[in-house]
Amino acid sequence: MGSLRSRVLGWVGRRYLARQSKKGFDLEKMSSFLPDSALLPLKRDGLDPVPEMAAQRSEAPIGKLDLPFGMNAWLVTGYDEAKAVLGKATGFSSDFGNLVGNAGVTADQNPGGLGFADPPVHTRLRKLLTPEFTMRRLSRLAPRIDEIVAGQLDAMAATDGPVDLWQAFALPIPSLTICELLGVSYEDREDFQRLSTARFDLFGGAGASLGAMSESLTYLLDIVKKQREEPGDGLLGMLIKEHGDEIDDRELAGLADGVLTGGLETTASMLALGALVLLRDEKAMDAVRGDDESVHRFVEELLRYLTVVQMAFPRFAKEDMEIGGVHIAEGDIVLVSLSTADRDPKLGADMETFDATRDPTSHLAFSYGIHRCIGAELARMELRTAYPALIRRFPNLRLAVPEEDLSFRQVSIVYGLDALPVLVD
After folding, report:
1. Contact 173, 271 (CB under 8 A)
2. What is the 3-state composition of the chain as percent helix, strand, coil, each rounded to the nearest 5?
3. Pfam families from the entry (predicted)?
4. Is the CA virtual torsion 259, 310, 378, 284 positive or negative?
5. Do the beta carbons of residue 306 and residue 353 sit within 8 Å?
6. pLDDT higher than 80, residue 325
7. I need a labelling partner for 91 at 20 to 30 A (CA). Which of 11, 37, 74, 388 fits?
């Protein structure tokens, strides 16, 4: 077990250093072959998509996108059009095989999991995983999430001077929660909390991101093998106990990797950016001090407004079709800007602003259709627990630096901050 732990912690450290050095994407590498127009969906002005995205949504909710390697690509920015694409499971493919042969991507780099799978493989795997994400199963994590949040707040209170809310609060809460969910054994929390990812770099040459995926799967395969020998009470152990003969080790590792990467960076980014929204907005502060319904409204509006996963998994057209009056040919790649679609006026009035009292919308922060995030309810549990606890514990919470000095990721599918220095006294 010690050898496995060493490999896990070594992997965690390397991934963390990779994130620190890349800041989301390797911009130098991308700039050599991607036009500026292709990067616009991954850029923001503070918390807002760049203005060009709203202009494109208004002019052409489905418009051509310049991509290299001879790809005929479309960018979807309208809400109705986004739902039409994401909900058309039979007309589009997300299978990893569509990427093989482009930008040096090879078949053995397939990370597995749900995101890059089509039915019937996707259907079978999701059916196995879904029971583990029902509210009944997730409710067992609620006391542990309370403990995790309280522990991080205690550590923050014991710190003299400014605290980096990203490192001390936003990152460790989902990291430790996912460890509980998966049933992964570890002893050194401080090292494990450094776990992070830049997994969806589908545009940047693919090699670095897919190499990280392979490294992730290697260590998770070791954990799966240990769980086969002695299944625990976490997600991996439960899947082995209930469906061990229906799923092989690589599929299990792929599912675990998807849970780990899909629920870590995204929720961490939400927690940090949401804290910034709280510090900006007194109505938001009042909302999280209020009753459960007020907190629910705040969290749903925050999910819509921030939509930290800016782009959905790429879809490849399996047939000629027409969506929103636009002809999409078989083989075309379709990219959906979730962040721009969630600002569409069709969702309601004044969607470019944050309103903590807004009635919840049918936002796309967790995507839509068969690839809707399976961990959506777990993320909501963490957000609804963490924000009220933060404000109750530190009513005088404030930024330790001018807001204009904050560093946001410049180009990233999962948008976020690099750090969030605050004072808690």
Report:
1. yes
2. 55, 10, 35
3. p450
4. positive
5. no
6. yes
7. 37
Q: Which residues of 184-220 are buried (b: 16+ CB within 10 A; e: fewer)?
A: beeeeeebbbbbbbbbbbbbbbbebbbebbebbbebb
Q: Say how far apart CA 20 and CA 137 lie, in whole Å.
A: 35
What is the DSSP-derived secondary structure letter of residue 167?
I
Distance CA 334, CA 75 (A): 6
Query: Quick count: other Cβ atoms within 10 Å of Cβ 35?
Result: 12
Phi/psi of residue 109, nearest 5 degrees: -90, 0
Residue 17 has pLDDT above 50, yes or no: no
Q: What is the pLDDT of residues 373-424, one digit of tens each?
A: 999 999 999 999 999 999 999 999 999 999 999 999 888 888 999 999 999 9
CB atoms within 10 A of CB 57: 26
pLDDT bin (cut points 50, 70, 90) of residue 7 is very low
The secondary element (H helix, E strand) that includes residue 380 is helix 376-393
Q: Percent of the chain scored above 90 by pLDDT?
A: 53
**In whole angstroms, what is the distance from residue 71 CA to residue 102 CA?**
9
User: pLDDT higher for 180 or 44?
Assistant: 44
Tokens of residue 49, six digits? 């998509």
Other C-beta atoms lying within 10 Å of the C-beta of residue 136: 7
What DSSP element (H or E) covers 397? Answer: none
Contact 385, 272 (CB under 8 A): no
- Give the residue carrying structure tokens 């072959």: 33
